[in-house]
């Protein structure tokens, strides 16, 4: 996951020896990205929920009399209520190689749900132009010290953007040229389920949907540590709002406000005056101190703003809760939004090409470059605790190997129910859709959009919608990848399906033909609930040794600040005198000391000025890390 990958990179960079292991066979944990066929395998695995019993307990013989073991969980319980659907009719899907064995999917159409055999294909609605020949990005192999998918050249076919302000640190923005549209006279061709499966490698589908604030903690860390060179980014090009049953674009920069045709001249002046106040609201406490106990929505009503401006500010700029967020929280969120404008584009947000799952891999790569060892498919049975000191001294893996270390960083999902007895978790509702067109068609078509849908019912949360186009390298041509996220009140499908039906056509009998023609059509969808362990205090875990640190999974916030803060806090607790993720040395500054070539140090050195050598033992990386001082 992202927090433990950042910790691993920081530890390796400061001269520690790091072993980073994961029981899964892919990078990122619940922050991962999958191809379409990979996501189908992930869905099948989480729907089956097979409980792996402890077939062999030989590892218990490795525990000495003056030690005790803290068993770790053998089963990941962070994902629940996984439901996937393909919408449309059936057609033949024989000879599709990318999918392998296709799982049975219920098809939702005018006739309701029914089971489809693995050998059949679902025909999806028409799109404007034919599907291109597969030119999929080949998956990188996890060899040497470079994590799969993190190799340089991820942005093949892209050019670096030049939108950053003068004097800013460089952060490469990938800009992929949009393909020319077909002539209107051409017969529209339907995209079928087999085409989606066949071009499955063009999809990079994130389990967690987030954007990077251009002046957020993660961007600052990527630039400072020079990890940004391992990835490319694309601007989120527009902010959308859902009001009165329609999707419309929100003006957020000064130029957008004055060019907007949605706002009257009076509204433009009102909006600019309020946004100027928000940028330095701390200097004018008299303006808001009487409203600190009020909600931000109530505060906006006192500012003589029109209903449309109140809606734009609350849901599309501040993006805070209408009923729960207080005035100060709303002002802070608005200021953060405005401060991020203009650094890399007209919106505050960036999105990493090939998906959010690239970011953990980039930090894993930095760790590997500085000698970290990575192993996937490597479960850990238990933590070994010294009874006298109460500190954890080793782990025992599924091979029966005992591995000693000074510090242990564990993701929350690895802890057993016994350890988490007093922990109360929140849940995140997630949906991922593949659609045939954008929620708001404009020219050009290649848009990355963020839309906040206000609560449709009292007591329901607002839903964050992120729509990605094919130039983000997350979906095939002529399709869009749509992520929906909100804090859970019920199952993911119960929380998010009403929003899906408002924005998209899913071929239900309730919709009229005209409504279906206007809305984008859903070709495929998956719903699932994900555990949110971000708010759990360390004291809630029972019996954890002081040198064992717990990283949380993804939270429901739009940005990544929580993960970065958590990683830095853990690192500072372990090594208070060390700098957190300092820049790597320039090649010309590296001092080679030929006298220090001790084989027992496996090519690693205490000196930060020695050339970092890749570890030949590295294979892959993910969830739990063990750290020792060299």
Automatic annotation (TrEMBL):
InterPro entries registered for this protein in UniProt: FAD/NAD-bd_sf, GDP_dissociation_inhibitor, Rab_escort, RAE1_2_domI_C
Bias type Acidic residues, positions: 590-601
Residues of the RAE1/2 domain: 428-556
SUPFAM superfamilies, per database record: FAD-linked reductases, C-terminal domain, FAD/NAD(P)-binding domain
Biased composition (Low complexity): 142-151, 159-174
A GO CC term attached to the entry: nucleus
Residue span of region Disordered: 114-192, 577-630
GO biological process per UniProt: intracellular protein transport; small GTPase-mediated signal transduction; vesicle-mediated transport
Pfam families on file: RAE1_2_domI_C (PF22603)
Primary localization class, coarse: cytoplasm
GO MF, one example: GDP-dissociation inhibitor activity
The keyword Membrane is annotated on this UniProt entry: no
This protein's record includes keyword Cell cycle: no
Localization terms from the record: Cytoplasm, Cytosol
Keywords of the record: Cytoplasm, GTPase activation, Transferase
Coiled-coil residue windows: none
Family from the record: Belongs to the Rab GDI family.
Protein name, entry field: RAE2 geranylgeranyltransferase
Gene symbol of the encoding locus: Chml
